[in-house]
Amino acid sequence: MNKTKTLPRVKARKNGFARITISVPPLVQIFLEKQIPKRQVSQFISDAIVERIPEVIAKKKNLHPLKEFIQLGKKYKSKMTVPEIIAAIHKGRK
């Protein structure tokens, strides 16, 4: 039995981002409405999360954030080469 971990399936939109819903305290919502321009709240929250992830990972495993990121990339690297992926795409479009 193969016990390798795989990333959870996420339904991505056309721009490569996945949609999530979060709940925030009322004071945070008021701050966001007053300080962040409309249509930029999602980007602000996304940037804040991306900045915080390496810190959380480093605290959890006591590793350097950059090393953890590189290890994560190696762990979930595709087993197919780029030419094999392109060939499969072209085969599926015929």
Can you count the beta strands? 0
Percent helix: 55-70%
CA radius of gyration is 19 Å
**Mean pLDDT figure:** 77
Order of helices and strands: HHHH
What's the number of structural domains? 1
* Spatial gap, N to C terminus: 35 Å
Characterize the overall form.
Answer: flat
Please indicate the percent range of residues in DSSP E strands (runs of 2 or more).
under 5%
How many H/I helices? 4
The description of the largest β-sheet is: none
Model regions low in confidence, pLDDT < 50 over at least 5 residues: none
Structural class: mainly alpha
Top keywords for this entry?
94 residues; mainly alpha; 4 helices
What does this structure look like?
By secondary structure, the chain is mainly α. The protein has one domain (26-93). It is built from 4 helices and no strands. Helix 2 (41-61) packs across helix 3 (65-75). The longest helix is centred in the middle third of the chain and has 21 residues, at 41-61. The model has no long low-confidence stretch (mean pLDDT 77).
In short:
It contains 4 helices and no strands.
SSE map:
Elements lengths: L25 H10 L5 H21 L3 H11 L6 H12 L1
Helix pairs in contact: 2-3
